[in-house]
Specification:
about 140 residues; alpha+beta; 1 helix
Length: about 140
């Protein structure tokens, strides 16, 4: 019975990940962690899935993020566009906030040769009570 339940959780997680890949093209969670299932898992209370993407189009970075929550939960999203400096550290170049399950914004006027990424921070609530913070970071993209 326990194996069957784990298989159901695994298959549900796999389905949600496939949906996220379709929705955002490329999804990367920090440290190759699996959300709510699998080895080296991170378990969340109200969050089923969180995904983020950064893509370069012309001289702009298009940053997208989405979360899937269990019923009865809501969230506040912060989407951050970051640029990597010459020391390898990341600094914020733009920040947007919103309520809901998805957010997409564009950062204009990229610097040629610089590397960019997106970070999504979801603060999850139940009945206006804070439950958890979930952070995911996209792959880096070089503007050339």
């Amino acid at each position: 019975m326990k194996k069957k339940k784990c298989l159901i959780v695994y298959m549900t997680t796999l389905f949600l990940l496939l949906f996220a890949f379709t929705f955002l093209q490329k999804v990367v969670a920090t440290s190759d962690l699996h959300v709510n299932g699998g080895d080296n898992s991170v378990y969340f209370i109200g969050t089923q899935l969180a995904a983020v993407d950064c893509r370069i189009s012309g001289s702009s970075a298009i940053c997208s993020g989405m979360v899937s929550l269990y019923q009865g939960y809501s969230c506040h999203l912060t989407l951050i566009c970051e640029k990597q400096n010459s020391s390898g550290f990341w600094s914020e170049v733009d920040r947007w906030t919103g309520n809901g399950l998805t957010i997409e914004r564009t950062h204009f006027n990229l610097t040629y040769g610089e590397t960019y990424r997106a970070k999504l921070i979801a603060k999850v609530y139940q009945d206006s009570n804070f439950i958890e913070t979930v952070t995911v970071i996209s792959n880096s993209r070089n503007y050339q």
